[in-house]
Design goal:
Largest sheet: 6 strands, mixed
CATH architecture of the largest domain: 3-Layer(aba) Sandwich
Number of strands: 11
Structural class: alpha/beta
Strand order of the largest sheet: 7-6-8-5-9-11
Number of domains: 2
Number of helices: 11
Order of helices and strands: HEHEHEHEEEHEHEHEEHHEHH
CATH class of the largest domain: Alpha Beta
Distance between the termini: 91 Å
CATH topology of the largest domain: D-Maltodextrin-Binding Protein, domain 2
CATH superfamily of the largest domain: Bacterial extracellular solute-binding protein, family 7
Shape: globular
Strand content: 15-25%
Helix content: 40-55%
Radius of gyration: 24 Å
């Protein structure tokens, strides 16, 4: 009997040891979190998100893993806000203007000609805009992890050079947000709100005559293949942020939260540094592709500012007190 007892306890110990060795692997799997990204891997924002994932892994010593799904494999840019709120994905890259329906003040980055340089969003957010918007996101079940600068939005089309507001008459233009649509209307175009993942096909088929998007995104999505003209107007910034489901976030321990925010700051800084080079490389690629590139003169830009002043006024009226605070902050910093 003693022999069989020894055999039994030896077998039991073996099973316990097997389960013990499996626990780290189980824990690692449980800590893998999905991040939805609508940009292709070649875009500088996607590269910045990869840095975020790498830093999370490094700082957590492998305890937390972020798995990125590029090119809208999980959710389109028009779907990501609802997906985050419903907990269908843990983390996602969100265009701030996609909150415009619930948080009208979030459309502030679409206000034309509010900012003057690529460093403007950083100043704007750090001087108080970031805190104001963060509080609004939390009210709708989402936690802002870090900001993602995009660079300036430009105007592409297949019909003619766009040097004055009058040149937009009759053009069907893809827009990326409600605020962008208002700007296009003010300039005389007919906007169609469309996901970035659907833009190329619409331009190729002639469903729309042109589109508003940044130069790096235009190059990543090969917009230059189906367009003839690019107008560099630098009229809005289309800020993004990486956000998470609030319940997922509050379920993390304090150490994990600190690691994710720290990694986010690293990625945020890297993306901002990458923008300048990315913009220059994209413009070169567009010119090499044979597009006619129009760079607005100060006088021409002034005409665009004048034509879109009503959009700024509409924003303040629609976004209420918070919108007014944000515009006042922008005017204080950049006017």
């Amino acid at each position: 009997m003693k022999y069989w007892k020894r055999k039994f306890f030896a077998a039991l110990l073996f099973v316990v040891l097997i389960f013990a060795t499996m626990l780290p692997a189980v824990a690692a799997t449980a800590a893998e979190n999905k991040l939805s990204n609508q940009f292709p891997p070649s875009h500088h924002i996607s590269k910045g998100l990869a840095i975020f994932a790498d830093k999370v892994k490094e700082y957590s010593q492998g305890r937390i893993a972020i798995r990125i799904f590029d090119s809208a494999q999980l959710f389109k840019d028009t779907e990501i806000v609802e997906a985050l709120q419903d907990g269908l994905v843990d983390i996602g890259l969100v265009a701030t203007n996609k909150w415009g329906g619930m948080i009208p003040a979030a459309d502030v980055f679409d206000v034309p000609f509010l900012f003057v340089g690529l460093d403007s969003p950083k100043k704007f957010l750090e001087e108080g805009a970031g805190e104001i918007l963060d509080k609004e996101f939390v009210k709708f079940g989402v936690k802002n992890l870090f900001w993602v600068d995009y660079g300036f939005i430009q105007m592409w089309n297949s019909k003619r050079p766009l040097r004055t507001p009058a040149d937009f008459a009759g053009l069907k233009m893809r827009s990326y947000s409600a605020g962008d649509s208002e700007t296009l209307k003010a300039l005389g175009a007919a906007p169609t709100l469309m996901s970035s993942s659907e833009m190329y096909m619409a331009l190729q088929r002639g469903t729309v005559d042109g589109a508003t998007t940044g130069m790096p995104a235009g190059v990543s999505r090969k917009v230059y293949e189906v367009q003839k003209y690019l107008t560099i107007a630098n009229y809005s910034t289309a800020e993004f942020s990486v956000q998470s489901n609030l319940d997922w976030w509050t379920g993390l321990d304090a150490d994990s939260q600190e690691i994710i925010l720290r990694a986010g700051k690293d990625a945020e800084a890297w993306i901002r540094e990458a923008i300048v080079d990315s913009e220059a490389e994209a413009e070169k690629a567009v010119r090499d592709a044979g597009l006619e590139v129009v760079v607005l003169t100060p006088e021409e830009r002034a005409e665009f500012v004048k034509a879109t002043q009503s959009v700024k006024e509409q924003f303040v009226k629609h976004a209420g007190e918070i919108g007014g605070q944000l515009i006042a902050l922008g005017d204080k910093l950049f006017r």
